[in-house]
């Protein structure tokens, strides 16, 4: 867990204008910067970045957040990776579990990573340069319908004939980074004597694989004629793990947002060719089955994932593995579908033969996950026989157990129950599903916490916008908060404690990031604060003090009204009455003291 103090310090050091400006063209507009929102299509800018609040907000789609939030939403990084990326840019080291690693070893690991990244970048530049003077490779790409523009967009290159072409790029051809990055292969004689080093990629069209930062971390090489393997990938390295990376995701990020979905294919050429033909929202797994890590990364980018597989048996097997990888991440607000093309086609060939509109129709009619799961479970089983129905349930059991107890799981259970002549509750008991949905008596909806309003809402807004003002609230004010009701008082107390933990230098961006990490309770207030003009802390301090005095006054007034019904003696009533009125007089004097003098 990254300490909150580090997050606050990081957000104080980075400048959100610089962070967003790397990806969005911004222009100064008054106190803020304006640009076209990267999260939805728009022709006139409604996306604002506030250098004072260190927050971005789109008045069109409502997207908003800090520098960390922007990196997560734009790049599809996880929270920790986003923090590390920003920290690296300002020379900070993220404190985490790896701090147990000795400093010298950590420095060595960082140096190794930089050396590998540099080697991959130089190799990528070399391969791109070689493509310009490789007529056979150019002819092959043209034959596949690719233009120079699309080849440049994906950084395509060519590894020429020869065993050690990289020697011209790396004067020290024996450097360790070349082997560790997978660019060369070291072959040792059986007796362990002589070692021969040679380039891994030769006579292949090269597809650079990038991470979420856009850095080249691996390559895929394709033969142009006959040869095995048809595709050759970089091996696993400290930079590259094929179970975590997706080809084309870096290039497709904006297109995925524009389209509202991501199309997952099986090969590099599918991705590049589909981008050429109007489907730039395509990505591909890297010569391996789809993993849960792939699914997590995709669902960070979009709410709709459509897997497109070849129509042959291998494509069907790949689809089944993708289904199994998806099941733990199925939620009611995400959509996952499966597109199956005719046996003789892959996405590239299908679009070329039938056109863009026909492929769009196939995407529109893709099979929902629920339907695919039931189809896989029932398969060829005879549902007219008890044995066939039992086998269908047997095959469905591990898939349903992998799912969380969502409404979609309940719908699948109901569908399976109908097909196998059982009830949903019987299936949930038989399958030992965690937190059965059909068996649970659905409770009436709770009213939940009362929504803040009036003075309570005003105080909350002031504390979130200027957390340092929490130091202004005394114990008497916290006692007076009970006037709002117990739940509201508890909510204010929790907010107050969190704001105080930020310290006297607490800033809006860091506090908002902390609140967002705890849930969505304050998203509405944060969004409203971002929309408003910047306010001075001293001005807001006066407003907060006035609001606190009003709360105290209302609480005293309420107690006075209840005084005679409290069952006290007349003497006790008199003493308490004088105490309450004295406190009211003190509040009045404080208010008058803060009035501006002429």
TrEMBL record:
Bilayer-crossing regions: none
Molecular-function annotations in GO: DNA binding; DNA-directed RNA polymerase activity; zinc ion binding
Reaction(s) catalysed by this chain's protein: ssDNA + n NTP = ssDNA/pppN(pN)n-1 hybrid + (n-1) diphosphate
Key words, A-Z: DNA replication, DNA-binding, DNA-directed RNA polymerase, Magnesium, Metal-binding, Nucleotidyltransferase, Primosome, Transcription, Transferase, Zinc, Zinc-finger
Cofactor note: Binds 1 zinc ion per monomer.
Co-factor requirement: Zn(2+)
Domain of life: Bacteria
EC id: 2.7.7.101
A GO BP entry: DNA replication, synthesis of primer
Zinc fingers, CHC2-type class: 37-61
PROSITE patterns reported in the protein's UniProt record: TOPRIM
All residue ranges annotated as the Toprim domain in the record: 260-342
Keyword DNA-binding carried by entry: yes
Pfam families named among the record's database cross-references: DnaB_bind, DnaG_DnaB_bind, DNAG_N, Toprim_2, Zn_ribbon_DnaG
Subunit and partners: Monomer. Interacts with DnaB.
Function: RNA polymerase that catalyzes the synthesis of short RNA molecules used as primers for DNA polymerase during DNA replication.
Membership in a protein family: Belongs to the DnaG primase family.
Family annotation (PANTHER family): DNA PRIMASE
Protein name, entry field: DNA primase
Gene behind the chain: dnaG
């Amino acid at each position: 867990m990254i300490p909150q103090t580090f997050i606050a310090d990081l957000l104080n050091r980075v400048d959100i204008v610089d962070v967003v400006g790397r990806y969005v063209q911004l222009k100064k507009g008054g106190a803020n910067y304006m640009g076209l929102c990267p999260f939805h299509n728009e022709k006139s800018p409604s996306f604002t970045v506030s250098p004072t609040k260190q927050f971005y907000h789109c008045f069109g789609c409502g997207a908003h957040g800090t520098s960390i939030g922007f990196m997560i939403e734009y790049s599809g990084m996880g929270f920790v990776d986003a923090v590390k990326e920003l920290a690296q840019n300002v020379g900070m080291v993220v404190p985490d579990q790896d701090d147990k690693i000795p400093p010298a070893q950590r420095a060595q690991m960082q140096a190794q990573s930089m050396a590998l990244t540099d080697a991959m970048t130089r190799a990528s530049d070399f391969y791109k340069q070689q493509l310009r003077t490789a007529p056979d490779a150019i002819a092959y790409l043209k034959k596949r319908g690719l233009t120079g523009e699309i080849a440049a967009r994906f950084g395509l290159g060519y590894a020429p004939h020869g065993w050690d072409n990289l020697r011209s790029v790396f004067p020290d051809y024996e450097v360790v980074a070349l082997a560790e990055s997978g660019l060369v292969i070291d072959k040792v004689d059986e007796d362990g004597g002589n070692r021969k080093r040679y380039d891994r990629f030769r006579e292949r069209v090269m597809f650079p694989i990038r991470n979420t930062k856009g850095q080249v971390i691996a390559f895929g090489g394709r033969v142009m004629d006959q040869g095995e393997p048809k595709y050759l990938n970089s091996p696993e390295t400290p930079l590259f793990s094929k179970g975590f990376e997706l080809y084309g995701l870096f290039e497709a990020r904006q297109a995925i947002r524009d389209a509202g979905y991501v199309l997952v294919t099986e090969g590099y050429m599918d991705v590049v060719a589909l981008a050429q033909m109007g489907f730039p929202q395509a990505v591909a797994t890297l010569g391996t089955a789809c993993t849960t890590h792939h699914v997590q990364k995709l669902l960070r980018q979009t709410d709709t994932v459509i897997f497109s597989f070849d129509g042959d048996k291998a494509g069907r097997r790949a689809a089944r593995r993708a289904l199994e990888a998806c099941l733990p991440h199925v939620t009611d607000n995400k959509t996952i579908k499966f597109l199956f093309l005719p046996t003789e086609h892959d996405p590239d060939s299908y679009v070329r033969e039938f056109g863009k509109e026909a492929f769009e129709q196939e995407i529109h009619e893709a099979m929902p996950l629920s339907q695919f799961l039931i189809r896989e479970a029932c398969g060829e089983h005879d549902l007219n026989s008890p044995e066939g129905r039992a086998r269908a349930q047997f095959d469905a059991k591990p898939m349903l157990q992998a799912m969380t107890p969502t409404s979609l799981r309940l719908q699948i259970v109901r569908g399976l129950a109908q097909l196998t002549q059982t009830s949903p509750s019987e299936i949930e008991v038989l399958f030992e599903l965690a937190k059965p949905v059909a068996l649970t008596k659905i409770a009436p909806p709770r009213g939940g916490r009362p929504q803040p309003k009036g003075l309570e809402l005003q105080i909350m807004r002031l504390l979130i916008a200027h957390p340092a003002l929490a130091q202004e609230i005394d114990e008497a004010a916290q006692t007076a908060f009970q006037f709002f009701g117990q739940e509201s008082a508890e909510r204010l107390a929790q907010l107050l404690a969190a704001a105080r933990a930020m310290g006297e230098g607490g800033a809006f961006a860091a506090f908002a990031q902390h609140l967002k990490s705890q849930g969505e309770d304050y998203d509405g207030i944060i969004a409203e604060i971002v929309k408003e003009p910047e306010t001075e802390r001293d001005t807001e301090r006066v407003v907060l003090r006035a609001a606190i005095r009003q709360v105290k006054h209302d609480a005293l007034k309420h107690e006075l009204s209840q005084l005679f019904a409290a069952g006290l003696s007349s003497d006790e009533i008199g003493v308490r009455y004088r105490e309450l009125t004295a406190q009211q007089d003190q509040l009045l004097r404080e208010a008058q003291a803060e009035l501006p003098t002429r």
